Amino acid sequence: MPRLTLSRKIFLALAALLIVLLLSFAGLSIVALQRGLGSYVAEIEIRRMDWLAQLLLKHYAANGDWKKLRDNDDAWHRLQMGRLAAVLDGANNAEERKLPPWYENREPGGNGPENGSRPPPSLPSAQLDLLPRRFGPPPPPWFFPDSREAADSIYQRLGVIDAQGAHVVGAQVDDEDAARLPLRHGRSVVGYLVLAPVQGLESEADRAFLARQSGVIALTGLCGLVFALLLSWLLARRWFRPIDELTQAAEDVARGRLSTRVAVQGSDELALLGKTFNDMAQRLDTVEASRRAWLADAAHELRTPLAAMRAEIEALQDGVRTFDERTALRLHRQVIRLGQLVDDLRSSMREPQSDLLSTTLFPLSLLKEALDHTRDRFATRGITVDRSAIDLVSAGAQPMIDGDAHRLHQVFMNLLENTLAYTDPGGQLRIGVIIDGAWSGNSLTLHFDDSAPGVPETEMPRLFDRLFRGESSRSRELGGSGLGLSICRATIEAHGGSIDAEASELGGLRLTIKLPLSKGMSP
Description:
It contains eleven helices and eleven strands. It has helices at residues 6-47, 50-63, 73-80, 204-254, 269-317, 325-349, 363-373, 375-381, 388-394, 405-422, 484-494; strands at 158-162, 167-170, 179-185, 188-195, 359-361, 384-386, 401-403, 428-436, 443-451, 498-503, 507-516. Strand 3 (179-185) and strand 4 (188-195) form a beta hairpin.
């Protein structure tokens, strides 16, 4: 059994929804057609009864109201037969007595041809041509029986109401469903000729028409369903192909193939997901490469003092050297270097927050202590230190931060050691202090600017990586392990601050430390 993937689930859900919608649409359309066909036919029928409307208006004009016609079935019957003169009292106007065309050839005083001397007249007519025969005004009684009595006769559903909607004569019809033809006398509506819709489909023609239209609706719905299913399949395939590719790519990354990438097309959410996956894979690849490089560098750094110690020991074993005070000093230096390297590796790998002892402290006092501790070494190398900004700020209310004094002192020492190790003799170190108020972040900013040599622009982004040492200034001959700045960044970030590097205007490197001030400190 094929696996029911997400794309198949979505396709089946869309297909089911479309089938229900189209079936509902087709069914409701057929029901609406069945119910609306009678009203539609009634509208057509009543529009063709304008001749009867004219007779009703003439009757109203002659009498001034509907009183003589109200509930007068006989008068209503004669109006339907076109006998206006018979229902008009004292009407002498010839126009008012005008009869339908098929009455004009009747013998006076008779109801039909006498003794068969004249053949029945044909059924011409301005009136009969307006409707099918079953809906037209009935022909003369002598031609064939009164068509009004037929079950499907229009006259069984025809009536008159006045302007207020009260019944006048004829059939009692539902005003909401009935078709209306307004009877206007002058500019006023004096009544309505109303016609009830056909109830049920009684003729073969009606049923054939309905069946034909229902077939068209069903065929249209079927074509729409096929098109909708095809469109659903294409959309499901288009939408979920990137997800399938992402799934396969994720499986490849899980197997260790970190170079895996997915193709990204468009700018929608799926494209954003693809870009995010590629960025994640790129970061993992970079981290893995960095980890391997870090392990290689760590192994190399550890190998150097171990190799020196091994050489000294083998020289002693071979009798090349004798164990004297100088040999012991050399071995001791290598052990100290090895221990320092192990401590730096441990410090760079641990979580800074894990052993952070947070107290309220004065960072400028810690910095001044570190400067005092290294003053002689700076003087030995001929590097001048400009600490006037520190002394100026310390003369007033010193800024306070919440942090670990030991760890922060270690950061300041690492930065000063970095300057001592990588600044040319006779150079300069300038320390700047900026205290920002509440409007600009409530923070303390320290700038460490030293003189040449500088760091190439291409190496600047990797300056805080573990064990990274640039080709020009970070040489192993200077004794650095490449872990000092990495430890500084981890410690500063654990204090909620930041440290960045850029080129200094003195020709060397500028290191900028930003630390949040204590909540009780508001400069």
